[in-house]
Design goal:
Strand content: 15-25%
Number of domains: 2
CATH superfamily of the largest domain: NAD(P)-binding Rossmann-like Domain
Radius of gyration: 20 Å
Number of strands: 14
Order of helices and strands: EHEHEHEHHEHEEHEEEHEEHEEHH
Shape: globular
Distance between the termini: 44 Å
CATH class of the largest domain: Alpha Beta
Helix content: 40-55%
Number of helices: 11
CATH architecture of the largest domain: 3-Layer(aba) Sandwich
């Protein structure tokens, strides 16, 4: 099977490659990203299956030529500015980047006249602020994006609908909820908390800084996320949208407390104004019923396991950095 994976150097991309290395016999993979990958967690024998291009997906001619030549069976579009905070600081750049990348991909498939199945990764942020009585969120819940990142994701989903209906391109969309796990960057809350806890245990900082701890989020391990993505490529229905979530809500304060308990610490916490968003969704919890029904998806990682693995990851990363 031939896979084209965009954003392949990122958090989800790395985990998806790791998954493929255990589930597929010698897949052919082209990975595209603006950053060089760090794939020291992949076996050298598997890395030989990957052809990496450090290029911009905004370059339409490059995208068209590559897809026409490679003719992928699957495209997994992970390339985006994925931080809500970044989208507030750079709204125009975020919108143009995320929507144009996707348009270039689907247009290339259309013009090449190939039956490539495309996974369009969206976000739970598309639902926006909802009333508690509408929780858990289902795929039928009306969309109400309240930040620039979410608006771009809704636009991507609408583009998908057009290309499925008008051009018969087999696209499956997700609304993916907050995923966590080892190797996630510390610009995201849970990974940041874990990193700060390890630094504090080593005597490098005295307080954990944070944003709004009262929000409730549906956290799902990235290793379950990529399993869901692969199942959707195999069994998902073209033109449909699927929530990828755990179905459980946890306050950020609860998650931080769990991290402290696992690490056996009680570090003081301090709110930081710069980490507060202009508009923040108070509750985002989804239903994964449709995903389970259509694909047979089942979670393997609970929150405790995810948080334990994240702490162990930062312990490993910081073990040498903080002793130099």
């Amino acid at each position: 099977m031939r896979y084209l994976i965009t954003g392949v150097s990122g958090f989800v991309g790395g985990h998806y490659l790791k998954y493929l290395s255990t589930k597929r016999a010698k897949p052919r993979i082209i990975g595209i990203d603006g950053n060089e990958p760090k794939w020291d967690f992949l076996a050298n024998s598997f890395r030989k299956n990957i052809e990496f291009h450090k290029r911009s997906l905004l370059n339409r001619n490059f995208v068209f030529a590559l897809i026409k030549k490679f003719k992928p069976d699957y495209i997994v579009n992970l390339a985006s500015y994925s931080s809500v905070d970044y989208s507030w600081k750079h709204p125009a750049e975020c919108f143009v980047n995320n929507t144009t990348i996707f348009l270039n991909l689907v247009e290339a498939v259309r013009k090449a006249k190939i039956k490539t199945k495309i996974l369009s990764v969206g976000s739970s942020e598309e639902y926006g602020i909802v009333e508690t009585r509408n929780i858990p969120l289902t795929e039928k819940t009306p969309l109400n994006p309240t930040n620039p990142y979410a608006v771009a994701r809704v636009s991507q989903e609408q583009i998908s609908r057009i290309y499925v209906a008008a051009f018969k391109i087999p696209i499956i969309c997700t609304r993916s909820f907050n995923h966590i796990g080892p190797r996630q960057r510390d610009i995201f809350a849970v990974s940041s908390f874990a990193k700060q806890i390890i630094k504090s245990k080593k005597g490098k900082i005295k307080k954990i800084v944070c944003g709004n701890l009262d929000v409730i989020r549906d956290f799902i391990d990235v290793r379950d996320v990529i399993k869901a993505y692969d199942l959707l490529l195999q069994k998902g229905r073209t033109g449909e949208v699927y929530n990828v979530c755990s179905g459980e809500g946890h306050k950020l304060s609860e998650v931080l407390g769990m991290l402290q308990e696992i690490a056996n610490t009680n570090i003081p916490v301090k709110g930081k104004a710069e980490l507060m968003r202009p508009v923040d969704n108070p509750v985002i919890v989804g239903s994964s019923g449709k995903l389970k029904k259509d694909t047979g998806f089942r979670q393997e990682f609970d929150l405790f396991r995810s948080l334990t693995d994240i702490l162990e990851y930062w312990q490993s990363v910081l073990a040498t950095k903080l002793t130099r």
